[in-house]
Amino acid sequence: MSDKTKKKPQKLKARLPRGFVDREAHDIRAVNEMTAKIREVYERYGFDPVETPLFEYTDALGKFLPDSDRPNEGVFSLQDDDDQWMSLRYDLTAPLARHVAENFNEIQLPYRTYRAGYVFRNEKPGPGRFRQFMQFDADTVGAPGVQADAEMCMMMADTMEALGIARGDYVIRVNNRKVLDGVMEAIGLGGEDNAGQRLNVLRAIDKLDKFGPDGVKLLLGEGRKDESGDFTKGAGLNGEQIEKVLFFVGIEDYAKSAEALASLVAGTAKGGEGVEELNMIGSLAVSAGYDATRIKIDPSVVRGLEYYTGPVFEAELLFDVTNEKGEKVVFGSVGGGGRYDGLVSRFMGQPVPATGFSIGVSRLMTALKNLGKLGADEVVAPVLITVMDGDVDSMGRYQRFTQALRAEGIRAEMYQGNWKKFGNQLKYADRRDCPIAIIQGGDEREKGVVQLKDLIEGKRLSGEIEDNAAWREARVAQVEVAEADLVAKVREILEAHAEDRRRAP
Q1: Taking the model in full, what pTM does it have?
Q2: What does the UniProt entry say about where the protein is found (predicted)?
Q3: Cβ pair 318, 170 in contact under 8 A
Q4: Peptide bond preceding 110: is omega within 30 degrees of 0, i.e. cis?
């Protein structure tokens, strides 16, 4: 085969894996800004950071135990060199349970900790559904009393406000797994034999926001037909059962309904205990200054109840946003948690109480962007030191100017491209939104001065000034200063721009 007929090697195609995203500077900074505010609240409550690895042995992740040669349902898994299955963590709670159990003798209980990090779901990606996303968790391990759960709710309320979400725009809703179990038992759906029907009831209750009480009533009974004619089979409860469930999930003023709820679950295994726990959480919250507009006992909260063993809570944002269909909808949940006394115990063979809360960082960031609460401290692009001459002495001077600015905390960079075309340097500065360009050619070098080109003011002037008289009266867009005064003059210009931004409507 001749050289002419040889096929050229194909270029490797650059492809982002499905369900994953590349993060740009503005998103990274927004997340850093947000997590710093969350961290400050958690630290104030006495929580300390801990970090666990991205990988865990698959059996440590609990419900994703290997049941085949490739246990990848829901998790991304691989085998290590001794044939043990490892998986990317699915959440931050199971790794914490493993960490606590493995270090139980060294850990001081109650163990109060927080951590932020990426988790991974091996699920089909779709709009707004990614295979990698960040969570920010706080947990207390070793505290059996519901005061630990109440404090989680208080901390979440404080976190919402620290992020700039006003009172009235959020609420922390609280329910209890024990109460719901008591209601199920009271209507004859206790025990393992009724687990499937209980799950159908939970799913029906979870549609309360979407379909309202009338729609949930149909889903609890024979079923519901939607506008398109599609029929969803119901949980098959009778009228009396439905009435009791709807009473439970329809409680708006808990204080007025607590006695009736206690009567409903009287005689059940855990129902009465659950009501007492909700009463305690409500009392602690009010005593600490958190009224029902901030922390609300709400029996309609059912998400994740199969995972939790006691109180459950959910942070919901109440302001309206426009969805992809152009409809106004309440933003909804940005985090949730509850008591999970069984998770650490799996490793220990003894009871280990635990409670925690997880914030969905990406979802919360979307909410804060809707409210205009992120990016207030916008990062200013670097000052550009242009290059006029390429000899060693000149380059050394340019580098010295750059380092002098950096040493004073000012972002700065020396132009690294083809310096021989000066116009390209200014185009680069424009694309980068650089506020100032520093220029020193041979003439300036001989005089020991530099030119400072105020690029922001220059853009403004070019759009506003129509004659020479106005130009002379305007703030000068280019000034000459002594090398020794370079840093001070740059700072003065940057502070003037910062003041302009603060005054802008």
Answers
A1: 0.84
A2: Cytoplasm
A3: yes
A4: yes
Q: 100: part of which helix (H) or strand (E)?
A: helix 93-102
pLDDT in tens, 222-241: 888 887 878 888 888 999 99
| Beta-carbon contacts of residue 103 (< 8 Å; ≥ 6 apart) | none
Residue ranges of the chain assigned to CATH 3.30.930.10:
18-144+341-379, 166-311
The CA distance from 318 to 330, in Å, is 6
- Of 92-106, 288-302, 323-337, the poorest mean pLDDT is in 323-337
CA dihedral 470, 499, 431, 32 (to 10 degrees): -170
Q: What is the pLDDT of residue 348?
A: 87
Which positions ≥6 away from 417 have C-beta within 8 Å?
Answer: 424, 425, 428
d(CA 321, CA 367): 9
**Could you give the C-alpha distances from 211 to 227, 237, 241, 286, in angstroms and in order?**
12, 18, 19, 31
d(CA 465, CA 470): 6
Superfamily in which the 384-503 domain is placed by CATH: Anticodon-binding domain (3.40.50.800)
Q: Which CATH number fits domain 166-311: 3.40.50.2000, 3.20.20.100, 3.30.930.10, 1.10.10.10?
A: 3.30.930.10
- List all residues 6 or more positions away from 378 whose beta carbon is below 8 Å from its beta carbon: 501
**pLDDT (tens digit per residue) in 446-481:** 999 999 999 988 777 765 545 555 544 444 588 999
Buried b (16+ CB within 10 A) or exposed e, 88-125: bbbebbbbbbbbbbeebeebeebbbbbbbbebbbbeee
d(CA 172, CA 312): 10
Which stretch of DSSP H or E encloses residue 354?
strand 354-360
- Neighbouring C-beta atoms of residue 463, cutoff 10 Å: 7
How large is the average pLDDT for residues 179-187?
A: 92
Architecture of domain 18-144+341-379: 2-Layer Sandwich (3.30)
Half-sphere exposure of 92 (CA within 13 A, CB side): 28
Calpha distance 385→401 (Å, rounded) = 8
* Angle of CA points 222, 225, 231, to nearest 5°: 75
CA distance 475 to 461: 9
In percent, the amount of the chain with pLDDT more than 90 equals 58
